[in-house]
Structure formats: C-alpha cells, structure tokens
Design a protein that fits this description.
transmembrane helix; globular; mainly alpha; EmrB-like; 78% helix; 510 residues; single chain; MFS_dom; membrane
Length: 510
C-alpha cells in the first residue's frame, strides 16, 4: 500500500464525502427494506419466502463477495473497483424500484448485495491512502458517526418513503432514491478519489468462492423455501450435502495455501483460540439479529396492523440506545473492564428480549409503542455494548500480518450469520404461523404467538454468545506504537458499519 502522504488540499475531503455516502447508501439500503416488506407483499403479491430472500439474498451476496471485492481493489485499483461497485449498486437500485414481480425484485437485491461487496471494502482502503496518518483518527470518528446516523435514519426513512406513497409508487422510492445519489457519487468520485493499488496483491480464489457459495446455497435455499413446499426430501438432502461441500471448500483452501499462499480464507487464523471463538460469537450474534429484525417488523405490521411509519418510529429508542452504548463501551467501559463489558451486553440484550416476550404475551393486541420502548431500549443498550468493541477483542491475539484478512473474515462471518438467521425465520416464525388456526385465532394472536416463539430463539442465541465470549481474551492487547494504533483503529471503524447493517448492516444491516 502506498505510504506517501497525499497533498494537503480540499480534494481529499470531497473524496471522503463520496466514499462515506457510498457506505451510507449500503447501510441504509439494508435497514430500509424490512420496514417496507408488508407494502411490498401487498403490491406484488410476494410470498413470505420471497420476503425473506429480499434481505437474505442481499446479505448472502454481500458476505460471499466481501473478501474477493477487497482483493479486486488491491489488484485492479481501489478507485476503479469502487466506482464499478457504486455504478452497479445504483443500477441494481433502479432495477429494484421498477421490479414488477417478486422474482425480479429478489434477483435485483442479490445484484445489489454483490455490487455492495465491490464497493464497501474499498472505502477504508481509500481513506487510508488519501489521508495522512495524523488525520485518520478524526476521519474514522466521522465514519463511525455517519454509520450511527445510518442505523437511526434507515428504518425511519424507509417508513416515511413508504407512508408518503410518493407519486403513487408506494415502496419503490426506498430503492429509487439511490439513483440520483449514486449518479452524483460516480461523477464526484471520478474526479476526486485518488487511485491506488496494493504493491503485491494476493491472487483471486474464484474456486473457493464457488465452493463456499454452493455450500451456503445448499443450506439456505431449502431452509427458506422448504416450508412452502411442505419440507420435501430434496431439501433435507441438499442441507445434508452442504456439509461435504463445506469440507471440500476447507480442503481446497488448504491446497490453495500450499500452492500460492492466497486462499479465500486464511485457515491458520483458526489456530488462534480467541479468533476462532470470536468467529463463533459473530456468527451466532448474526443469526440472532437476523431472526429478530425480520420477525419484529412482521409482528408490528402484519400482526398488530401498524403502519410503516408507526413501526419505524417505534424503533427509535432501540437505535438511539445502540449509539449511546457503543460510544460508552469503546471510550469508557472496555478499557476498564475488558471482556466483561461484552458479556454484560449479551446478558442485557437477552434481558430486553425476555421483557419483550413478557409484554407481547401480557398486552397482546393492545400493546402500544410506548410500552415497547423499554425492552427495545434495553436491547439497544446491550447490542451497543457488543458491536463497537467486538472486532478489537476478536483481533487482539491475531498476528498483525494477518489483521487485514482476519478483519475481513469477521465482517463476512457476521453477514453469513445474518443470512442464516433470516433463513431460520421459516422455522422460528412462519412455522408457527402455518400451524395456527385462523378460524379460532385473530391475526394479532397468530403473529403475536409466532413473534414470542421466535424471540425465544433470539434469547437462546444471545446466551450462546455470552458463553462463547468466555473464550475471548479478558482484555485486548494495546498497541503502543503510533503505527500499530492506526492499524488497530481501522478494523474497529470498519466494524461500526456492520452493527448498523445487522441492526438490520447492523439496524447495525435492514
């Protein structure tokens, strides 16, 4: 990576505005979709599995493409790949906005995720080569603030655009709004972003990508679609076949390591106990979050009959609590208490989930937004204690030479967990809906029961997260050299975007 300091002029701040806008677009487009799902279902007659794929397809394509997207930037130029990703993301957004049937919409969402995987990994690399070392701390702070804003504004923006029904387009403006923003970003980025490449970039591992993609699709496709087909035999065969496909992927990665040292996944990282445990934490946390954010939206709008705007406003305490707790955890709590803060976050979030289960059962269809504020705020506080410091904790014992690969794998794992969680909604939520008797139960009773059932899954996932955190180091290792400090800050800044996508890319990914 180039180390020469760039000229100190205003152009670098315009470049920063462009890449931050791209990250904001990606984050908001993840958080914005859930709130509009009931409107999408009514307008184009989408099935429940199609609604799952709107988020799951995006998350899966984004996760699978993240590492390869970063390497493409290193090889062919980060500016070039960033602009390609932004252009593709803008085109995919337009296709989403004009889609007339569920299949085309899902395909466009998958394309969006793939283009986001080209665009997003370049952002921090571009920042690194555009700004001198003494300015990067300030820049990463701004980056985190923008991501936090995205987490808060995404669901609310989606609710407003859906509720306003601009030009009679109903939900479509949530995607079409990206088109003028993307075009402006392309024009400005072409002029103000400085091109850069890695001096010795690793080679692509397209076979590894294909094997990993096949293994995940063999698991997730039947998991998501099986319910609509009454759980056919081929679905169980496919899910069972994902295990040997995963084994083939691992075997090939070992071969790729011996051959040219550029595997898609650096398997040696899993010899570091804290990293392996951290990957388990990210995966499990992603699963729990993926389940919650989808069933929460469906519960409020389909079960309780609330409008998109009311549902979006109801989530504000959650988003604000995340922002407050994330700042406190990194600045005050983790330096003093270490791993205990993350474990407390898992328990606090689980307590919020249990409170929510009690309220949903106690108040039933009469529950009000203000009554949801308490469990949502508690859940947000718990999530905030986890999402900001988790990457630093997981990377603490990873050799610095592999910090970049490890950070990319952490973010990828989190997105994969989110995709798996969305797939499990078929069992945790829709399975209960299917088993209910609409002749004896009202929609609020049916969806309320499905919601509480799915929330028990979320609570179980959070307790698993708490247990896995015992394998993390009690305290992260602090780097004393200035250069090492910069290296440590960068992955953390990258991870701020993830919670917002997950907190559904996080908000902190819908």
């Amino acid at each position: 990576m180039t180390t020469d300091s760039p000229p100190v002029d205003r152009r670098r701040w315009l470049a920063l505005a462009v890449v931050m806008t791209a990250s904001f677009m990606d984050l908001v487009d993840v958080t914005i979709v859930n709130i509009a799902m009931p409107s999408i279902q009514r307008d184009i007659d989408a099935s429940f599995s199609a609604l799952q794929w709107l988020s799951e397809g995006y998350a899966l394509a984004f996760a699978i493409g993240l590492i390869t997207g970063g390497r493409l930037g290193d090889i062919y130029g980060r500016k070039k790949v960033f602009l390609l990703g932004m252009g593709g993301f803008t085109l995919a957004s337009m296709l989403c906005g004009v889609a007339a049937d569920p299949q085309l919409l899902v395909a466009a969402r998958v394309l969006q995720g793939a283009m986001g995987a080209l665009m997003v990994p370049q952002v921090l690399s571009i920042v690194h080569v555009t700004f001198p070392a003494h300015e990067r701390g300030k820049v990463f702070g701004m980056f985190g603030a923008v991501m936090g804003l995205g987490a808060v504004s995404g669901p609310l923006l989606g609710a407003l655009l859906t509720q306003w029904n601009l030009f009679g387009l109903e939900w479509r403006p949530i995607f079409l709004i990206n088109v003028p923003v993307g075009i402006a970003g392309l024009l400005l980025g072409r002029h103000f972003i400085t091109e850069s490449k890695a001096p010795r970039a690793l080679r692509l591992d397209l076979v590894g990508v294909a094997l990993a993609s096949a293994a995940l699709l063999m698991l997730l496709y039947p998991l998501t679609q099986g319910r609509e087909h009454d759980w056919p035999l081929w679905g169980f065969v496919s899910m069972a076949g994902s295990v040997p496909m995963l084994a083939a992927f691992i075997a090939y990665e070992r071969y790729k390591t011996r051959k040219d040292g550029s595997p898609l996944v650096e398997l040696s990282l899993f010899k570091v106990k804290s990293f392996a445990a951290g990957i388990g934490v990210q995966l499990t946390f992603g699963v729990a979050s993926g389940i919650f954010f989808l069933v929460w939206t469906l519960y409020m709008q389909l079960g309780l009959g609330w409008s998109a705007l009311r549902s979006g406003l109801t989530g504000i305490p959650f988003s604000l609590a995340i922002s407050v707790a994330a700042g406190l955890s990194v600045q005050k709590l983790v330096p003093k208490y270490g791993r205990k803060v993350l474990q407390a976050g898992a328990l606090v979030m689980a307590a919020g989930v249990l409170t929510y289960i009690w309220e949903a059962h106690h108040y039933g269809a009469d529950i009000r937004s203000w009554q949801m504020a308490l469990p949502l705020a508690v859940m947000g506080l718990g999530m905030g204690l986890i999402v900001a410091p988790i990457t630093d904790a997981v990377l603490s014992e990873v050799p610095r030479a592999h910090a970049g690969s490890a950070s990319g794998l952490i973010n990828t794992t989190q997105q994969l967990g989110n995709a798996i969680g969305l797939g499990l909604v078929s069992v945790a939520f829709f399975g209960v809906v299917d088993d209910a008797d609409p002749r004896r139960e009202t929609p609020s009773d049916i969806f309320g029961g499905a919601f509480t059932h799915a929330m028990w899954w979320v609570a179980g996932g959070l307790l698993a997260v708490f247990a896995l955190m015992f394998l993390l180091p009690k305290r992260s290792k602090h780097h004393e050299a200035a250069g090492a400090t910069e290296d440590a800050v960068e992955p953390v800044a990258a991870d701020v975007a993830v919670p917002a996508q997950q907190a559904e890319k996080e908000l902190l990914k819908r």
